[in-house]
What does this fold into?
Amino acid sequence: MSALGSENHDLGYPIVVAPSVRAALTDFLARQGGRFVVLCDANVVSYGHELTNGVRDRLAFIPARLGERRKRLSTVEDVLRALLRSGADRKTLVLGIGGGVSSDLFGFAASMYMRGVPYAHVATSLVAMVDAAIGGKTGVDLPEGKNLAGTFSNPVAVFAHIDALATLPYRNMREGLAEMVKHAVIEGGDLFAAILAPGDMPGGEPPGEGPEVTAGVQRQGCLIGMSHCSTASFFPCTGGTWCVRWRCGNAPWLWSN
Ligand SMILES: NC(=O)c1ccc[n+]([C@@H]2O[C@H](COP(=O)([O-])OP(=O)(O)OC[C@H]3O[C@@H](n4cnc5c(N)ncnc54)[C@H](O)[C@@H]3O)[C@@H](O)[C@H]2O)c1
It folds into this structure.
């Protein structure tokens, strides 16, 4: 780990967490070799361009209007047809960019396109970073309920683009934080104890100041760290892992080591 980010391989594929993942992503794509197609949530195309413009072997950049109401089979069909028009073949890597809806839907489409092509995801929402993009569960909703059609299909890599959280609507930020609390409760141990004892921060104060600081969660053996404000940074904690926390108003501190 470095002051700029971390990389974890516990799940058998790299999970990269960094303020900007551009360098790590470019390096990963170069190592993969071959062409890639970008599928990007239309709300985050600026990040999509920032991260992939000028990267060699980009075959196409496909923005898609998403949202929970468009997380359905008809949108998957649109995406599959757009992939076909782009010239993607069985060896083309699909790179999805966006929040949890996009990791579910683009990952699902990639797992079906020509019976399955490699898929990597750049997470831009907190839910995607701490949960949706990790673990290989993909899918869409049916009129009868959420996530009723899908596949288990591991990505070949996940990138948490922390800088993107600067524009994530606060409501969606809160949903991610709730997800983190849920995991802390489920996992128990130090993480849960940390929630019960706010204020006793291991590892000392983080550099930088501001009402929003940092947040993170330990999940499936992966430590995910993130920052909600551009001046805040990751900071190493006791035990050689990231110390992460979030503070907003009177809300409790959250951290993991
Ligand atoms: N597969 C899994 O294991 C798993 C786990 C948890 C949640 N999920 C799924 O994740 C979805 C919820 O994820 P979500 O909260 O990320 O929803 P989302 O992808 O719809 O993102 C929320 C909103 O924020 C926008 N957005 C995303 N990143 C942004 C950014 N950096 N700046 C500005 N806007 C941004 C999106 O366009 C969208 O409008 C649900 O469909 C849920 O079922 C899946």
About this structure: The first helix runs from residue 22 to 32. Confidence is low (pLDDT under 50) at residues 195-257. Residues 41, 43-44, 66-68, 71, 98-102, 104, 124-125, 127-128, 131-132, 135, 137, 146-147, 164, 167-169, 172, 175 surround nicotinamide-adenine-dinucleotide (CB under 6 Å). The CA atoms of residues 100 and 216 lie 16 Å apart.
